[in-house]
Amino acid sequence: MAKARGASGTRHAIMRSAADLFAELGFGNTSMRAVAADAGCDPALVTHYFASKEALYRAVVEETVRPAEVIREALERGDMGAAEWLLRHAVADWNDPVQRRRILGVLRSASDLPAARERLSQSLLSEGVADGGPDEVRVWLISSLFIGVMTSRHMGLLPPELAEADGGDELVHALTPVVASYLAVARHGDVDPVRDAS
């Protein structure tokens, strides 16, 4: 049971169960008791580690959707190599069945609950990104592109061979100029994203 797993094992089991249930049911239909049952622990342990369902969701977002660090590094470089590197991080998550399901669960929950949307938005911005500045605008553009591509892939609108062949190489090559143009604007402020992507 949970006690035998130890504190860190119990907390991890709770978060894993929450991520799976958010993916399957969405935020609104996932209860703390259901998370406890799935994790095989007492419901009191769930509230011990996470004061509320919102707090549990925040923790799941932080573990599942962690783009801030890689986006920050890509923004600092702002070149074609950084764009490809960033895309390969994203494609690796999209092509991993467990991670893809959990990311989709986070997105599904964010569509259900304003507080969940706000938490997801906060997770996308790294420290030092100024509100309303060019870096923030580019982060939202890049994030929107990634979310759109992943959602299209999930809905079957994106040909599987484009997303999966050779580890997603074709998709990475197709999107790299676009992401690079966003990164260049974020860094230099005077680059035309349409001109530079062409």
List keywords for this structure.
13 helices, 198 residues, mainly alpha, disordered C terminus
Briefly summarize what is shown.
This protein has 198 residues and is mainly α. The protein is 79% helix and 0% strand.
The topology string of helices and strands comes to: HHHHHHHHHHHHH
Low-confidence stretches: 188-198
Number of strands: 0
Using the alpha-carbon principal axes, give the shape: globular
Output the radius of gyration.
Answer: 18 Å
- The averaged pLDDT comes out at 78
Number of helical stretches of at least 4 residues: 13
Proportion in helices:
over 70%
Largest sheet: none
Structural category is mainly alpha
Classify the beta-strand content into a percent band.
Answer: under 5%
Ends: how far apart? 57 Å
